[in-house]
Request: fold
Amino acid sequence: MRLSSAGFNHQSPEGIACGCLIGSAGEKTCLNSELWHACAGPLVSLPSIGSRVVYFPQGHSEQVAVSTNKEVDAHIPNYPSLPPQLICQLHNVTMHADLETDEVYAQMTLQPLSPEEQKDASFLPADLGAPSKHPTNYFCKTLTASDTSTHGGFSVPRRAAEKVFPPLDFSQQPPAQELLARDLHDNEWKFKHIFRGQPKRHLLTTGWSVFVSAKRLIAGDSVLFIWNEKNQLLLGIRRANRPQTMMPSSVLSSDSMHFGLLAAAAHATATNSRFIIFYNPRACPSEFVISLAKYVKAVYHTRVSVGMRFRMLFETEESSVRRYMGTITGISDLDPVRWSNSHWRSVKVGWDESTAGERQPRVSLWEIEPLTTFPMYPSSFPPRLKRPWPPGLPSFNGMKEDDLGMN
Amino acid sequence: MRLSSAGFNHQSPEGIACGCLIGSAGEKTCLNSELWHACAGPLVSLPSIGSRVVYFPQGHSEQVAVSTNKEVDAHIPNYPSLPPQLICQLHNVTMHADLETDEVYAQMTLQPLSPEEQKDASFLPADLGAPSKHPTNYFCKTLTASDTSTHGGFSVPRRAAEKVFPPLDFSQQPPAQELLARDLHDNEWKFKHIFRGQPKRHLLTTGWSVFVSAKRLIAGDSVLFIWNEKNQLLLGIRRANRPQTMMPSSVLSSDSMHFGLLAAAAHATATNSRFIIFYNPRACPSEFVISLAKYVKAVYHTRVSVGMRFRMLFETEESSVRRYMGTITGISDLDPVRWSNSHWRSVKVGWDESTAGERQPRVSLWEIEPLTTFPMYPSSFPPRLKRPWPPGLPSFNGMKEDDLGMN
DNA sequence: GTGTCGGCCGTCTGCCGACAA
DNA sequence: TTGTCGGCAGACGGCCGACAC
Reply:
């Protein structure tokens, strides 16, 4: 593996660590931020280094359950000292990609804040966290059987080629050029880009099949080309959601993994020390580390009630976003036994569209945009649901909402 | 994936569970015991279902450290309630192989015994655990560059072909036959076995390259053919020790994994319930679940002292065993802070041969055979080192050694 | 506009004995 | 006894426009 070129070493705009150290396993601890975000999808944004975040062990547990393909065993207790959400200082965030599969993930170093530290609101960012910079000049295509066959090359959609690839010299017959693209591991791939056929079309020929077999791509997977401001071509992949591609880890039982995440968080809370978590944006059902500002705004400054209409963002097949509409049908604890008084997925919802089976029946307050105008059903509930901070848990200790820099 | 044929469904002689259920991940929860043991190596034997075993969290921790390629962080404390060894009932053992890499591992269900239960010695097996049945009619060859090249087939060592493969019909010219072999996942592989060339030799031609590329074998890896009593041909692989083939898991941080194994064992001890561990014989430096009988014999019925000579078994390149000699240089705790009074690797040793750098400088009592005759150095230590059971830990509660069925 | 196919050529796979270690 | 090679024949990779949806 090669060290990344200087052009890939810049501090990314959203303040993600990019020290480009080589880890003990020979894995780079940083990689191109734009490409990482393009692979992670348009809805994923990482909180800024140095900011305050809220960590949800419940959400972390959901990610582990998905990764190990095993639900949390009912006999695993909660740690009595571990609240459903921890306010933490985010000391570090690094972006990674699996060397085998190119699956993207982020590593975060969190430190739970003591009640004392939580009183000091000076660290709270005034803004709600500028969204991570997602690339604008890119395209994403789902591979067809012809694209992945050994019989031919890759058919580039016309608009994509014209927008993302350097212009061809049409004085040549046929017009053609060599493209160099770098992947998440900074490996370079070379393709012949040619405009030929009847009718004329853009194709990648020589070099394409090497890429397909090296990445083990099959029809249904997606590739992603980015043309960035430095005039570099970047190349990422997104695998189709094959059921259970993730192998059951033979390192630790899923039960032990659940114990592990709880114990690590509880120990860090008790000793005021740091702990490390991994976030897999494409495997994980919902973000379980969110900015404190976003959390406070959603929980303390948003009026929600049963019957209220809302909308929520989802990713489309083509890696863009669309909004789905729904109605709040209830507000309650997802797991009243182990995680009472948690805001994690506390909102029960119904979706407007009949394909709603794919979407979660429970969401968290910060995931939705309530529509305060034109409620579908008049509600007898008070317009603002008061959810007091659960007693005995880390709290703002009397801090007034206005102290948090919001209004 | 196919269900295994009836011939593979037998209860293995050493009492390993072989229910052949299909797990939720589509993975078979059992597989051929002979083949598993052949791949695991001649020194690996699994304790019997229903027997009592001793579980060492320290050893488990070592395996996790190897698998994650990260040493245990010094700030991870021990659980005060967790002793360095747990006496457990072994409720279940199942053999597995990774679907991607064919790496073998075992899953064990353990239940810590309460002091009450430990008093009941009736479950103690009288024998020291008959060693697991390892195949006799097999061969193991390390692949050469020619074996893995696309240019040709596999050169079968003559003695191996004559011992393990069905005899050829030498009236044909050239003598040839079709071989069908099943791997750990019960997939069938077809090879043309031919005896040709000048001088004559045994070769596998058609079908071989498909196998090599499917298993992603490279020169230095080994293949293993078994001819079992049911006249079936079995086929396994052992990859060369490529440094860090194991990818750093992006599921849980290594710290959290260490917390997890400790918390799971501590919770099971406190609630008298079961927990599940994975044992990777080829990754793990030493077995960390051993039969209680073996433990008691080594710790209470073996006289060891500094200066004493001993020998210990190691696996050779060709999958057979040889003994190395050494001298005991000290007896002390490996980790006096977190695991005091532990028998895990309590014996410091020096090895006779100069290539000793590869071998552990610390071993456990049950791994070695002390030579009571002809000690190299006269020792001023008492001939028998008394290591009383550490106070405050699970114990035999006054049980006399003779109660354990030894003498 | 783009997915798939038949046609065609060139490279590489894969079977053979020669030869040497 | 067995690892590697040159030789050779055939299979498949891979580039092309035709054609259809």
Q: What stands out?
A: The first strand of chain A starts at residue 52 and ends at 55. Helices of chain A lie at 33-40, 57-68, 115-119, 145-148, 158-164, 208-214, 254-271, 292-300. Chain A has a mean pLDDT of 81. Residues 144-147, 149, 151-152, 155, 157-159, 197, 199, 201 of chain A lie near DNA strand C (CB under 10 Å from a C1').
